[in-house]
Amino acid sequence: MDVASVFAEPLVDLGTESPAFAGIYAPQSSIGAAKVGVTSQFLENAEQYHRAYFDTGYWNFLLGNALEAAGKPSSPGRIIDIGSGSGNSVIPLADRFPDAEIIATDISPQLLAILRDFLRQRSDGDQRFGLICVDAMAAQYQEEVAGLAVGAAILHHILEPERVLASCFRALAPGGWAIFFEPFEAGNALLKLTYRRILSQASNAERATPGLRFIERMVEDYKRRERPASDPIYRELDDKWMFTRTYFDRLRAKQGWAELITYALNVSPTGLRDQAIVHLRLGAGLTADALPAWAWSVIDESDASVSDDLREELAQEGAVLLRKPLHR
Ligand SMILES: C[S@@+](CC[C@H](N)C(=O)[O-])C[C@H]1O[C@@H](n2cnc3c(N)ncnc32)[C@H](O)[C@@H]1O
Fold this sequence. Notes:
Bound molecules: S-adenosylmethionine
CATH class of the largest domain: Alpha Beta
Number of domains: 2
């Protein structure tokens, strides 16, 4: 694939500096630049991250629904995947669109190297994929070089997500969709209040248990992210943002996108309980029995206080679809 033609600046093979990254390209201007706003989780500890989060079946399911919501766009000639990591969305996209070229981009050469090795096992591995190590905020694409852009759990890691959307807008052909999957504030606000209620009801002895200590950490984590966007703390945090539809609607108007669709993922009568179980597992390697029964009753009470209709709006995780206008 002629990956160089997709970018507005020359690319260099990272293998010339470090053989472990051979076949991964980077814009010339990024060589030697500090990776700001990203932590060791995605860099030195990439292998561990990959093992914990690699689940192409789940991402295939989410992508299927999003493509349906976008009106089943016809096969794009080229897809740009933003923040590809080790390939959770790249692999389902490759299977869904067997004729498309896929440019997988990420700031982490370590995660891209895992993806590269995985793709080498595919019969089409050499021809269809371009792997580019680039900060999504600084990626300079040529105009109208892609029919589809996808970012799976990426924007909330970015210091200035607005710049990523602007670069997608430039790269997309008229009528092309950008599809993202991101954490949303509404559902998380309810969970944050529920966790706070649990902490306020816990005895000192309970607060010392691993489960309640983790809930305390979650509340602190939510609190850190209540700071204004300009706060330097975001450079140190992996998870920086939770979004609202209002945020994306403002960018739709400012950047000139023709259409915005958002919807909640994983809507369920036990949405908060389900999310708390995921938090315990991924955040601390704990199971549900790490919290006392009464704490689960508090979570269930919050779940029960939400109507089926409101659940559709109180997303903890949401899909965001933006469409570039067909005409200038
Ligand atoms: C939650 S992971 C998602 C990875 C992949 N899309 C997936 O679904 O498994 C976030 C990804 O964003 C990447 N990332 C973080 N900051 C970035 C930046 N400024 N530019 C490009 N990628 C970035 C990380 O290296 C990581 O691969």
